[in-house]
Design goal:
There is one protein chain. The protein is an all-alpha fold. Helix content is about 40%, strand content about 0%. Helix 2 packs across helix 4, helix 2 runs antiparallel to helix 6 and helix 8 packs antiparallel against helix 12.
């Protein structure tokens, strides 16, 4: 019978579905709630080189780790809120591989293998840090991610759409505000400097811009993408602050809709 299951799809020109490991296990929610989530609540202001708690920023601004707001007077999340948070956080790990998981390398010092920058500060100077090890143990024990998490991140971002439709937005003149490129030539995410006399970027520069800016979006989710929410007016659902000003008063703005189309996988 097993032979028929394997052979019939081949005769029909189909590829058999890859077998899942018998011990494939998604990240443990119980451990997440008891051990991982409290890390997001820790007040880091007394720590040298660190900012406030993760929850201070990650419930207010659009990042890949958008956490549920705490109820007034509450010191933690309800189970329902924790499950919503869990669904977001598991998209930021690579099961079995802490060193490739954004959740672990974003707040880790660069010298210890972390990302170049983290706006909220570098909490861990070493992978020996107890918090880092707690997260690493959780990630190592996972050998798969929930189907909902993997499907949500399956959207492929189109480079040509970015080059031809998104990049011109960075160059647009904005009365009362500088063009995006003025700040982001030396900012984060970074835009490549234009060549002398050039009105736009060449192919190589565009590819580097693409790699930098796709880090501030959540595929298929414009309202969780910092690229779209940072310059959007707060009354329209945007982040509270953007140093370059608020470019869009509504999510119906043509530029915002162009970016949203790219985030959703338009080609």
């Amino acid at each position: 019978m097993r032979l028929l299951v394997l052979v019939v799809p081949l005769l029909l020109g189909q590829q058999p579905a890859p077998a899942q490991p018998a011990d494939a296990a998604p990240p443990d929610f119980g451990y997440y709630r008891s051990t991982v989530e409290p890390i997001f609540l820790k007040d880091r202001r007394p720590d040298e080189g660190s900012g406030a708690s993760c929850v201070t920023c990650h419930t207010k601004i659009a990042t890949r780790m958008r956490l549920q707001p705490l109820a007034e007077g509450s010191s933690g999340w309800t189970e329902a809120q924790s499950r919503d948070n869990f669904a977001v956080v598991v998209k930021l790990i690579v099961p079995g591989d802490p060193a490739r998981s954004p959740l672990l390398i974003h707040p880790l010092a660069t010298a210890a293998g972390g990302d170049a920058t983290h706006t909220g500060g570098k909490f861990w100077s070493s992978q020996d840090n107890a918090e880092w090890q707690a997260l690493a143990g959780w990630v190592r024990r996972a050998s798969s991610v929930p189907a909902s998490a993997s499907s949500a991140s399956a959207t492929t971002l189109d480079f040509a759409f970015f080059r031809d439709r998104v990049q011109p937005i960075f160059l647009k003149k904005r009365p009362g505000n500088a063009r995006c490129i003025v700040c982001h030539e030396n900012g984060n995410p970074r835009l490549q400097s234009l060549s002398p006399g050039a009105a736009s970027w060449n192919e190589e520069q565009s590819q580097k811009n693409f790699e930098a800016w796709k880090r501030v979006i959540v595929p298929n989710d414009p309202t969780a993408s910092r690229m779209l929410m940072h310059p959007l007016a707060a009354e329209a659902g945007g982040d509270p602050f953007h140093a370059g000003g608020k470019h869009w008063t509504s999510q119906n703005d043509p530029e915002w809709l162009t970016l949203a189309a790219w985030v959703k996988g338009a080609k």
